[in-house]
Design goal:
Blueprint (H helix, E strand, L loop, with lengths): L5 H13 L4 E2 H8 L3 H15 L3 E5 L2 E4 L4 H7 L1 H16 L2 H4 L3 H8 L15 H5 L1 H12 L2 E9 L2 E15 L2 E10 L2 E8 L3 E10 L4 H9 L16 E7 L1 H9 L7 E5 L5 E7 L3 H10 L4 E4 L1 H19 L14
Antiparallel strand pairs: 1-3, 2-3, 4-5, 4-8, 5-6, 6-7, 9-11, 9-12, 10-11
Length: 330
């Protein structure tokens, strides 16, 4: 049996879980002609969306601890965006729609015109405007072909040659993530696809680095930094959210690694993130200043204080006489 697309495979696994089926990794590996390791990565993707919903029955058998998964997913705003992307991809003949069976597309796209949602920001329109670029990138990733392209950023034009790994949708934009060969190592690079032009194959092939693929599945944002042992170097960031804003962090995971680790007597909550560098978490912190407190690490606490002082100085022309200090860590 030919290898099914990962998108179709994950959706079918979700659909089977919804029906209450017991999933056996060995049987699924035979059905989809992939390794059990690949299927475990699929389960990790599902965990990122729904949380740890799996009951391990032993012997490579799994069942969902929740019901109505597929319907809940269809009702979410995130899945509606996926519907729109698939619909537009179908018009542009891209792999995300071509690799889905007709019946699966019908399940995803049903009642699309009657949806209660309106999205004012539609970055997925990039697909239609730049469909030829997307097609080249899809082929390059599928066949492990190195590419070169021109990149225009703030009026500056640069040329790059990279090994493309994944097209990623983050921060409401499409990015291309890959490795760039540099002296003594390959470096992680990420580019806004909207800023790429003159994309072509270099004529060279490459071998995929599985550790780098794991990194791409893990990262929270385009600002992540990569090292071969990235998991050993992750930074634990703990933020304290006051009671009046805690509900927003209970309702939504701003990043996949977000976990509520403590509920305090005053109604505030402590939220933990795992990040590869401080740049990954600063955007969230800036959005919630001054209604957020950095508990750990101390270095990040100092950076945030500096940002707050700079903002005050730029706004008022001088530094605040007494910037309220953060509560010391015990």
């Amino acid at each position: 049996m030919s290898k099914d697309s990962s998108v179709k495979r994950v959706i079918e696994i979700i659909y089977d879980l919804q029906k209450g089926s017991v999933l056996n990794l060995a049987n699924l590996a035979d059905k989809y002609s992939v390794s059990e390791r690949t299927l475990r990565r699929d389960l990790e993707v599902i965990k990122e969306i729904f949380g740890d919903i799996f009951v391990h029955l032993g012997g490579g058998n799994y069942q969902s601890s929740q019901k109505a998964i597929f319907e809940n997913m269809l009702n979410s705003s995130e899945f509606f965006m996926l519907k729109e992307i698939i619909k537009l991809s179908h018009k542009s003949s891209l792999e995300i729609s071509k690799n889905l069976s007709k019946s699966m597309q019908d399940k995803i796209l049903k009642n699309l015109d009657e949806s209660p949602y309106i999205f004012k920001h539609k970055p997925y329109e990039e697909i239609f405007a730049r469909r030829e670029v997307f097609k080249i990138l899809e082929r390059a990733i599928a066949y492990k072909k190195e590419i070169s392209f021109k990149y225009t950023n703030a009026g500056k034009i640069s040329h790059f040659t990279i090994q493309p790994y994944k097209i990623m949708f983050m921060e409401q934009n499409f990015y291309l993530a890959g490795l760039q060969k540099r002296p003594h190592k390959h470096a992680h690079v990420i580019f806004r696809i909207a800023m790429m032009s003159e994309v072509k194959f270099s004529g060279r092939e490459f071998k995929r680095d599985q550790n780098y693929l794991d990194f791409l599945h893990f990262i929270n944002s385009p600002w992540a930094s990569y090292s071969p042992n990235f998991r050993a170097n992750l930074i634990k960031v703990i933020l304290q959210i006051p009671q009046e804003h805690a509900k927003y962090f209970r309702l939504k995971k701003f990043y996949p690694t977000q976990e509520i680790i403590c509920e305090n007597d005053d109604g505030s909550i402590n939220v933990e993130f795992s990040v590869t560098n401080f740049a990954e978490i600063l955007n969230i912190i800036k959005q919630w200043l001054p209604r957020i407190k950095v508990l750990t690490p101390r270095k990040l606490e100092g950076i945030v204080k500096g940002i707050a002082r700079d903002f005050y100085a730029n706004t008022h022309g001088n530094l605040p006489p007494n910037l309220p200090p953060q509560k010391p860590n015990s």
